[in-house]
Specification:
Blueprint: H1 2-9, H2 25-45, H3 50-66, H4 72-89, H5 95-109
Helix pairs in contact: 2-3, 2-4, 2-5
Length: 111
Amino acid sequence: MSILVLAATALPFRAAAEDVTYEGKDVERLECAAIYLAVARDAFEAEGDAQGHAAVAMASGLALLDALPGTMAQKKRALRAMGRRIASETRPEDLGDYLRSVEARCDRLDR
């Protein structure tokens, strides 16, 4: 699973013809932003301690998104497209493995 994920992030990524093409570290930033923001969304819907984790995940995701080139509209389209790509390429039963495979890489990008 992790080999497939690493190979996919090495490819240029573009959501639509009028959008920015992200390559290299920017693809990784986009992927990690999508993950952090999805985690934040789910944590905000939960109760208790998850609320604090949601704020951290949201801040991390937005910081990574902010570091990307392009307009906010382009970034949003790319973020939605990345989310769809992750969902389409990752079976629900493999999601935990996928998240573990990108965790260290996302943590490094978030510093």
